[in-house]
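Q&A log
Question type: sequence-to-structure
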Amino acid sequence: MSEHMKREPIARPLIFEIGAPESRCVEAPPLDVADIDLSQVLGGSARATRPRLPHVTEGEIARHYEHLASVNFGVDSGFYPLGSCTMKYNPKIDEWACRLPGFAGAHPYQPEQTVQGALGLMYGLQEALGEISGLPAVTLQPAAGAHGELTALMVIRAHHVSNGDARKRVIIPDAAHGTNPATVAMCGYTVTQVPSNERGGVDLDALAAALDTDVAAIMLTNPNTLGLFDENIVEITRMVHDVGALAYCDGANLNAIMGKVRPGDMGFDAMHINLHKTFATPHGGGGPGSGPVCVTETLASFLPSPIVVHDGAGAYALSTPEHSIGRVKAFLGNFGVLVRAYTYIRALGAEGITEVSEQAVLSANYLKEKLKSAFELPYDRVCMHEFVLSGSRQRKANGVRTLDMAKRLLDHGVHPPTIYFPLIVDEAIMIEPTETESLETLDRFVDAMLAIAREAEENPDLLHDAPYTTPVRRLDEAKAVKEPDLAWKPAT
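Response status: OK
Response body:
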């Protein structure tokens, strides 16, 4: 490995460590009001000493923030193959659209007649998501994926309660997303887990044994978290319906199938969609997000209120479904994310949306075939938009963990993929290249992964100490969680 990937990063002084007392960014005009003694106003809440603020010039503070931006990793700065999270580059036209004054400046308390454009956009997005999912009734309120799955299960629960049907359990496959069990508990149900079969799908015999009239629903992702499309999905939803239960689809992996197949046509009764993964607004950093829920006509009357309706004469309005579970989000959801998603869908059109899925699946299968000789591949079959490798070979042979290899990828300028998930794969490495990366980028990633696999054989200690080129070297992760040190303290 070249020497530049081993050298220590250049240390830069903190903003508190530069500047001088006479430095300033701006020259403020003289005050035209009398001075006030804040201690008399604030009483015991007043500071005992002045805050220690940096005294820097405009140039110095500009360079400070430019440096912070340069060390922050994002989809605009490098490859981000984060499995199950669809961290893809998104068109800048989506950002432009959500900043248009009529959208960015709208207030949720404005009268409906003054925000017809915003309501019209929301209505159009509801229609588009209903068509893409095959589930025609849509709410845009939920703020993120986990919030969407909670909303969907609350709708399912309200449906059962309205029928006087006191069900107690929800079935979840062992490859499910981690938020699913929490959602089940929050809705007052208990979890029944079913295992995966040798093909990476739901074990039908185990599912049949778990099903009875106590089951309210099954929650599963298709494609699942192994990146595999369940070949028995129609049979699974039929079996669930036969005992009066409903089928919920976690829409986290919609990026693999939109335009090709619809969850509603597979037999699902409800699903959430991550607009911040699949339809622009890069995912990560804690927000913003949006997790609309799409349901069948049977469940439409239970959706949160309000939803946007069209009166047939050109006007849009807010309406409360007859048996609504109530509001689940302040105002009307994360509106900026809705604008980005609508722009993304309209810009691509039906053909473009389909091509997104096709390219995402092609990219994932390309990487899988290139890497499967160097790593364990638990399920060697055609994948969807992502696939799961295992670092168990490297751990057993040389004591190199998946974590070590992920840290080493940082020295190649690549954000590591998801690791140690799903839990059913030992030393899991979950890779999603997305549709937006070029062949050249994919090949560079392959070269990096193969180089790291060679290093694991020839020089394991090199990986144990990686990364070498990042501003902060490897942390004690357990200590960092238990004793976070997030604030700068001046030397005493």
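Response note: The two ends are 42 Å apart (CA to CA).
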